[in-house]
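Researcher: We're teaching a course module on how sequence relates to structure. For the next exercise, students receive a sequence and then see the predicted structure as tokens, so they can try to spot secondary structure elements on their own. Here is the exercise chain.
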Amino acid sequence: MNSFVETISPAAKNHIEARIAYFNDVSLAMVQTMRELAEVNLQFSRSWMQDSTQMLQTALLTAPNERADATPSVEAVSQKLQNYQQQLVKITSDFQTTINQVAQQHVPQTARTASELADVVTQKAAAQTDQQLRMQKAAGKEILDQASQFAHVAAQNRAMQQPASMQSDENKGNKS
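Model: And here is the predicted structure for the students to work with:
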């Protein structure tokens, strides 16, 4: 008994392998990007939590007149948010570049194997159609041959003399 892999054509196998390689590289790029996003989010969250904790401690432990000097400025918070946004933009830009590179690397191969597979399928369909046509022609020829034989036998049977009966000829007979 053949396994599934042994029963597929070489063109189909090549196309499947090309598509798997393409999807594998796309998946790897996505996983790497998700890992980078997770790291940036983790760093930002830790920094945000540390700053929030520090601001809360400052608010609770310092005198009201000293708090203004101890709290982070709006510019510092804005700068952290801007850095976070820049990191996100860089990661998404890098991801887009990577996906474009993967596509440039794999699409020609995948398109070529798809074209080869389509050619094989077209050839196979044409061969099957041709075989069906030959079988239909052979069946039609056989029917015509049998009909011709039947007509020939029928013609031979008509050509044989029929025995004459007495009633068949009115002129010959017993007249009184």
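Model: If you want an answer key for the exercise: DSSP finds four helices and no strands in the chain. The radius of gyration is 45 Å.
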